[in-house]
Amino acid sequence: MNENERHIDIWNHFLKIVEQIVEPQKFTTWFKPVRPVSVTDSTLTVEVPSDFFREYLEATYLDVIKKTLKRVIGADARLVYLVRTVKSQPALAVPEATGSVPQNREVSIAAQPSGTPNPFVYPGLTKVRINPKLNPVYCFTNFIVGECNKMGYTAGTAISSAPGKTSFNPLFIFGGPGLGKTHLAQAVGISIHEKFPDLVVLYINGHEFKTQYMDAVNVRNKLTDFLGFYKKIDVLIVDDIQDLQGPGTQNAFFNIFNYLHQMGKQLIFTSDRAPVELQNFEDRLLSRFKWGLSVELLHPDYCTRLKMLQSLCRREGVTIGEDVLEYLASHIKTNFRELEGAFLSVMAYATAMHAENSVELAARVTEKIVATPVKELSISSVQSAVCEYFGISPEDLVSKSRRRQIVQARQISMYLCRNLISNCSLSTIGAETGGKDHATVLHSCNMVSDLMATDRVFKKYVSDLEAQLLPSEA
Fold first, then answer.
1. CATH fold group of domain 379-469
2. Which residues, at least 6 apart from 277, have a Cβ–Cβ distance to it below 8 Å?
3. Sheet harboring 35-40: ordered strands across?
4. What is the pLDDT of residues 20-29, one digit of tens each?
5. Is 288:170 a contact under the CB 8 Å cutoff?
6. Greatest CA separation for the chain
7. How far apart are CA 298 and CA 176, in angstroms?
8. Cα(304)–Cα(330) distance, integer angstroms
9. What is the pLDDT of residue 384?
10. Per the CB 3.0–4.6 Å rule, which of 43, 49, 165, 457 could disulfide with 78?
11. Element (H, E) at 451
12. CATH fourth-level superfamily of 106-296
């Protein structure tokens, strides 16, 4: 055995054994992306895409890994992980408008013999080329990776290497506006298209799907063509899926979902809220949204925002002082879209006024774009106010105690966080309230709403805290 390739041989032997133990889909998702790096004595070092990936491996397959390593290396076998750092990701480099636009291969669809043409079929033709509606700018090369979206990025790259064959089917991406949901979803589609050109990819938003469905049912004999069209798709990306309102639309989508999922096609959805928060959706559809992986995109941290601005400088071919970029990154905290808007506004003002890009100019521009809150609320500040009001400790509030007073305070705290803090997701609230899940937080908020409607004393508790937390009117 070549000593320089010993780690590769050991890892290949390891994979052959694990492949017989772990089901194929899980094996492809969780073991294929791991790369052997080196071996020293009985210690094998491997590289994994992220901390999330490593944690999942250890939590789910630790016993399998230990036993297989001992079989391959010996009783003293050890495994060391190297996490592929975010810093190694490529910087933003937006292609020109004339860049390559993805094109699908032709597919056969029954042509319309007469009557009003189907929106998806050209009369007299049996071969059509479906427009994937993918924007080449929204590729992985241009995706800024940070702690806010690393899990989504890891899942997206895994899907693009094996569409329909990973555990992430469907992939449900949710989060507030401007956090990169559309970019990530389209990046997966573009990457799949590049690696598997024979697969038919389609990106569509929920409102457009609903409109197409309504047009199909209002024209005789067109619903069959509508369903037949979507069954030709190999990778279906639906943006803003919360817009799929109406029993007819949801029933049609349910049938399409079932068919594509059973055929091993890849499904990717985006939403402005988590599956558990979607309203007016059929339970059978909601349960299918939860089949794969639900991943939340969070607000970008300072380092990620600064990296975004530095990438924008390279994209625009401009040089801006680091102090200006740092000022913008410090003051625009909401999302990528607002950050880019502030950056371009500073550039436009500087050009129009023949002024230097300075911190003073950035301050004047951003105060016209971003409203500065009179009082910025956080989960910790809400929790502190609730603890003080009810005379309990912060440790009690986030504990598992079932004492009535503590449970009541905990539920009110979660309710206030959800209603008073903008863009605060249920998962974030739950994580900072003793590790509660989405369903627990949602149940608590509903309980508070119900009690406020029937219990005047309880309603006064909430009103007092709201008055204390919210800024008073001048």
1. Chromosomal Replication Initiator Protein Dnaa; Chain: A; (1.10.1750)
2. 426, 438, 442
3. 35-40, 43-48, 78-83
4. 888 887 888 7
5. yes
6. 79
7. 8
8. 11
9. 92
10. 43
11. helix 438-454
12. P-loop containing nucleotide triphosphate hydrolases (3.40.50.300)
- The kind and range of the H/E element at 282 are none
**Quick one: pLDDT band at residue 386, thresholds 50, 70, 90?**
very high
Provide the mean pLDDT of the chain.
82
- Note whether 185 and 78 are within 8 A (CB): no
- Do the domains at 3-84 and 379-469 have one common CATH topology? no
* Helices 379-390 and 456-469: angle between axes, nearest 10 degrees: 130
Both structure tokens of 120: 């998806």
Omega cis (within 30) before 170: yes
Give domain 3-84's CATH superfamily: DnaA, N-terminal domain (3.30.300.180)
Contact between 134 and 186 (Cβ < 8 Å) = yes
Residue 36: helix, strand or coil by DSSP?
strand
pLDDT, residue 88, reads 36
CB-count exposure of residue 303 (10 Å: 0-12, 13-18, 19+): middle
Q: What is the pLDDT of residues 444-465, one digit of tens each?
A: 988 888 888 788 888 889 988 9
Residues 6+ apart with CB under 8 A from 372: none
Query: In the block, which residue shows the tokens 């507030």?
Result: 176
352, burial (CB in 10 Å: exposed 0-12, middle 13-18, buried 19+): exposed
Tens digit of pLDDT for each residue in 103-139?
776 665 655 544 444 554 444 445 667 888 898 888 8
* Per-residue pLDDT reduced to its tens digit, 175-202: 888 899 999 999 999 999 999 999 999 9
Q: How many CA atoms lie within 13 A of 74 on its CB side?
A: 7
Q: 434 in the Ramachandran plot: left (φ > 0), alpha (ψ -120 to 50) or beta?
A: left
pLDDT at 452: 83
Query: What pLDDT band is residue 371 in, cutting at 50, 70 and 90?
Result: low
CATH number of this structure's domain 302-369? 1.10.8.60
Please report, for residues 7, 61, 309, 349, 361, the alpha-carbon distance to residue 352 in angstroms, rounded to integers and kept in the order given: 60, 59, 21, 5, 12
pLDDT tens per residue, range 308-334: 888 877 766 667 788 888 888 888 877
Q: What pTM value is reported for the model? A: 0.62
Q: Where are the domains positioned within the chain?
A: 3-84, 106-296, 302-369, 379-469
